Amino acid sequence: MARICVYLGSREGNSPAFRQATTTLGRTLAERGHTLVYGGARIGLMGELANAALEAGGEVIGVMPDHLVEREQAHFGLSELIRVRNMHERKATMAANADAFVALPGGIGTLEELFEIWTWGYLGLHEKPMGLLNIEEFYSPLLSFLDSTVSHGFLGPTTREMLFDEPTPSSLLDALEAQL
Predict the structure, then answer these.
(1) How far apart are CA 82 and CA 74, in angstroms?
(2) Mean pLDDT across the stretch 149-172?
(3) Which UniProt keywords are listed (predicted)?
(4) How many domains does the chain have?
(5) How far from 104 is each of 81, 117, 150, 173, CA to CA, in Å?
(6) What phi-psi label fits residue 104: left (phi over 0), alpha (psi between -120 and 50 degrees) or beta?
(7) CA 49 to CA 20: how far, in whole Å?
(8) Suppose 25 and one of 41, 65, 151, 169 were both cysteines; which one would form an S-S bond, judging by CB atoms 3.0 to 4.6 Å apart?
(9) How many alpha carbons lie under 13 Å from residue 175 in its C-beta half-sphere?
(10) Nearest 5°: phi and psi at 88?
């Protein structure tokens, strides 16, 4: 089975659909035998995802820089919590421990992680699948913008196609598994 790295918010957002889809994804990852790799927090959507995977018997690996352990309220009930020195090391460690990448709703940290791993794929540093869980069309404005970057000649169609989106946890995992 695969190790799936999930980028998502340390906040819950303002729609119950975000929490519901997040817990469904965590449970489904575990039920399908995948290992969750994520940022290591016990709060927000991050905590919901980890708890759902753990409650379903899944393996969960968290990666958190020392300076954020208290700020992000590290989850000490994980299968493994890897503590690193800084954010750069966190992202590299998460990427090295993953076979695929998923982004759920989140803020600037989530977007930064998503764009960095997508850039690494574009540069040929990995060939791992990357998808968005487009809960309540959260990512639709971003996807429209990305399509615009293609039409304006700043992003190649092949690069755009590297990042796909699905509306449900099951359809997202089906698409990822088809590429693994």
Answers:
(1) 10
(2) 98
(3) Cytokinin biosynthesis, Hydrolase
(4) 1
(5) 21, 14, 23, 13
(6) beta
(7) 10
(8) 169
(9) 19
(10) -60, -45
Task: Provide the pairing of β-strand 35-38 with 130-133.
Answer: unpaired
Alpha carbon distance 40, 62 (integer Å): 4
**CATH code where residue 55 lies:** 3.40.50.450
CA distance 43 to 3: 22
Query: Looking up tokens 């869980």, which residue turns up?
Result: 133
| pLDDT (0 to 100) of residue 117 | 98
Helical H runs in the chain? Answer: 16-31, 44-55, 87-96, 108-122, 140-151, 157-161, 169-179
Structure tokens at 133: 């869980």
d(CA 45, CA 55): 15
pLDDT for 138:
98
Model confidence pLDDT, tens digit, residues 106-121: 999 999 999 999 999 9
Is the pLDDT score of 72 beyond 80? no
